[in-house]
Specification:
The chain has about 290 residues and is an alpha+beta fold. The chain has seven helices and ten strands. The structure holds a DNA duplex (16 and 16 nucleotides).
Amino acid sequence: MPELPEVETTAALVRPHLEGRVITGARASWLRSLGGPAVAEFEASVVGSRIAEVTRRAKWVVLHLERAGRPAGSILCHLRMTGRLVVDAQPGHADREGAFERVSLGLRGPAGGTATLRFLDVRKFGRFRFVEDHLEALADLGPEPLGEEFTEEWLIRALKARKRVLKPLLLDQTFLAGLGNIYVDESLFQAGLHPERSAHQVPKDRARALHGAIQSTLRQAIEREGSSFDAFYRTPEGQPGSYQHLFRVYGREGKPCPTCGRPIKRLVVAQRGTHICTRCQPAPRAPGKRR
DNA sequence: CCTTAGGCCTGCGCGC
DNA sequence: TGCGCGCAGGCCTAAG
């Protein structure tokens, strides 16, 4: 559950269980998840801090920490492919999911109640790390697609300035932060753009369409709490998101295009499975080839 | 600057 | 049923 809408959903769902609680302990069973430091070092950085606020930036969940009312660094969590955050009211019950726990934090509430934040991650690509300065750590990210900076004019100029293939550019988090494979495919379809077009050749009206497509796709996905494919990967509350039912092209190879009825094609662009309607998203003219 | 291949990991579904 | 293969929502690195 790893693109912007799924991360937004995750942050919203853990927020009420985390804000205001104090970290009383830390454990890690997969060291790479911590992204560098040893467990003891990580523990020393976070234990005793209070989680003041839970926010999202791009595909990162940010736990803002405080000590004695002053900022004391952040925990940055990236779910990558299979990461999940769950909060248990009762610490440490060993169920099926327990096997995939990589990091956990013991928590104490203002009223004294305890809980456990668990970072679960089947494939171990995700990260759960402490940083002193989250702004510095995330400085390379591009604008938020639902933020103020991301305007039609910004996108028109930004596309014009880049000589890159459209899909990998949209997946590049330093260009625009938060899109992944699913929402890029869905947005390009909605905008009528072929994923292999050159960014600088996208006409203004298509760029405007893309801007609208990205925002509406993400907003609708957030409304439906993201996309969930199988029974295992779910929101922290155990409920699947439902946006997958609204996919127009992603994962729909061979099924009819919702607009024209032609079968959806699957191709590989920049090593990523890519889904398009060849009629609604016409291919770019091959270089050197006329009419 | 850009692009591609490989690596990181595990589990699932498919065809044989 | 079992086995090998290809696939997966991400992203970093090295090399061309």
